[in-house]
Amino acid sequence: MIKAAMVTPNLTLGGAERWVVDMVKHSDPTRVRWTGVACSSYGGCDQSLATELRAHVPLYANRCLGRPAHAKPFFWPAIKEITGPDFRLTVQEACKDADVIVTWGSPDLSYFLGPFKVPKIVCSHTTRREDKPRPVTGVTHLAAVSEAAMKYFDGRQGNNLPRRVIYNGADPVRCRATRTRREVRAAWKLTEGHVVVGYLGRQSPEKNPLAPAEAICEMPSKYHAVYVGVGPQGDGVCEDTFAWCEHHVPGRFHMFPPTAAVGNVLAGFDVLMLASFREAFSLTLIEAWLAGVPVVATPVGSVPEVQRRFGDMVFLVPCKPTPEELRLAITMATTRPLRRRIVERAQRVALEHFTVRKMVERWTTYLEEVVSGRC
Known about the structure:
- By secondary structure, the protein is of the alpha/beta class.
- It contains 14 helices and 14 strands.
- It has 2 domains: 2-169 and 355-372, Glycogen Phosphorylase B (Rossmann fold, 3-Layer(aba) Sandwich); 181-353, Glycogen Phosphorylase B (Rossmann fold, 3-Layer(aba) Sandwich).
- Helix content is 35%, strand content 17%.
- The strands form 2 sheets. It has an 8-stranded parallel sheet, with helices on both faces. A 6-stranded parallel sheet has the order 11-10-9-12-13-14, sandwiched between helices.
- The longest helix has 18 residues, at 336-353.
- The two termini are 18 Å apart.
């Protein structure tokens, strides 16, 4: 058995943060024991994620001096130990017994991880490129959730470290509905006669959150856009999206706060819209596949990689789709024969390859190889 530790810049509501929790929660304790998770208090710490994580591993944080006024809320009751203002002390406490350290976010980590003489892995969950890329420091291995996400390290000093792509996975249990479709829609004040184009998650600009509303502008009144999630800062409804919808599709959009009952949300959707400008490997995408919901998506991140291997799993639109292109894709996604074929393939492939158990198994094998020096 190996001992591993995790270092995370925050625990807010996002795919990478969900990955942190799932990695710890679903690991085989006979193969991996997590010694601790260090979370920087400069970022946010969501109550639900922190509570879920704390049930499986000690959670450490530092009492950061001068947290910015716009910082996301931090749930202190879940923290096992609070160190002084220097985050290095938190990392040392969480990682002191570890055989390997896993982190994500900034690749410039020599200040925090440099003193440790064990393998240190940084995982890319993004495809964002910087004007002046910082070097990859303080780590020994590079990982990514897709081939597209691995390109984040290209062009950086230190990018010649050993690399491994380990595809994401989602929890099928989270994708199971505990309420009927009729009950979910009744809570949204919608009926079975409506066609729901759904958006799930943070409404960050790179995810093109206006796409569902732009699409239904071109469609009959029975089409509605339902948004479940938060604004780009994680602290409420995205005001820009709300204002646009209020002006262009009044009465045909509905916005709700984030919920852990992802399965219920997906049960109410007819189509999930993921017309992002960039992605790594969206957990929302996998959750829709597992739940049997058709997805309209752009060919970004993992989508082309997965479709090259397994065939059509989404209804594709261009990277910067027009409302008409979105409308046509939604029409195809709600056409029964085509919908059934693609949705059934996506669900089967996701269950075989992209569950959280499969993801953690891949990561566990990789960690064992890293610790043993085989990679």
